[in-house]
Amino acid sequence: MERFFFIIVFFYRRDVPNGTCLSLSTDQMFLTEHAYQFILSTIGQSLTEYCPNLTYIYQSKPFTCFTVILKRLTFIAMRSIWKGSIGFGLVNIPIKLYSATQSSTLDFDMLDSRDHARIRFQRVNENTHKEVPYDKIVKGYKLDDDYIIMDEQDFADAAPEKTREIAIESFVDIADVNPMYYETSYYVEPDGKNTKAYALLIKALQESKKAGLARFVLRNNESLCLVHPVDNVMVITKIRFPEEIRSSEEVAAPTKTEVSKKELDMGLALINQYAGKFDLSKFKNEYSNELLNIIKLKSKGKRATIKKMKVAPTKSDDLYDQLMQSLQTKKGA
Question: What is the CATH topology of the domain spanning 82-104+163-244?
Fold first, then answer.
């Protein structure tokens, strides 16, 4: 998929003659019409699924269009973020990790309200107040009154085996994992031609309905994770350590409030009436879509028509009556 990156030769700056190809970091690049049409003909379906309003963005904000396409190309190419192995027993599976998630929110730039110039953040030396080049920045830990400077080898030496191996320590039921522990997920791809051990682990996890509980080091941080199959792909989902979950003791939960059997039965009936299979395909990020619609209208000098929320007051303060009304409303929907 890396072949798609040759498309960047079509990006150029307005103030540079002959469409000279430049670094991707400049904010003055935009797409030529020829390049835009070529990209659509090559990966158009993938792009429009990712960003249905791409044509509008290209016409109104060329650089934003460049950013959107670049993000999608990065996803298509799916460069691995970690290489190592999964180990269970004496079996060792060389793997690559790829990010399995992406944001669906809109990207906003911070601007100066006076002239709409973009706000830039710089890494500044607090003593000299001058910007520090990235290659001159090091990591340090403050111990007593002094900083102890760390390099990449120090981080690797802390747990050399965990920086290269995801060692499965036990197999557990995913249903036993509190959702509060979940963080983010990564796709796992076998690294090499011998994929039998990878296929075996997936099949065994599917048959046993278990997940491997393991730990590894990613970006200088040790993480717990679950190794589990999704369809026919192995997935690693990072989970939190117990000390990262705050105690609920300070939450004022109504532990002594009495609930009658009649109210409980009605509550269970309401849950059953709304029960269904876990299907996220019907859910979309509607807020971002509405926000983009407002942006499009404002670009034309118009204001969006906002639907006012209608608060439907309940006819009774009694919990049982409210539950009953809820059931009847659902039936009539």
Answer: Ku70; Chain: A; Domain 2 (2.40.290)
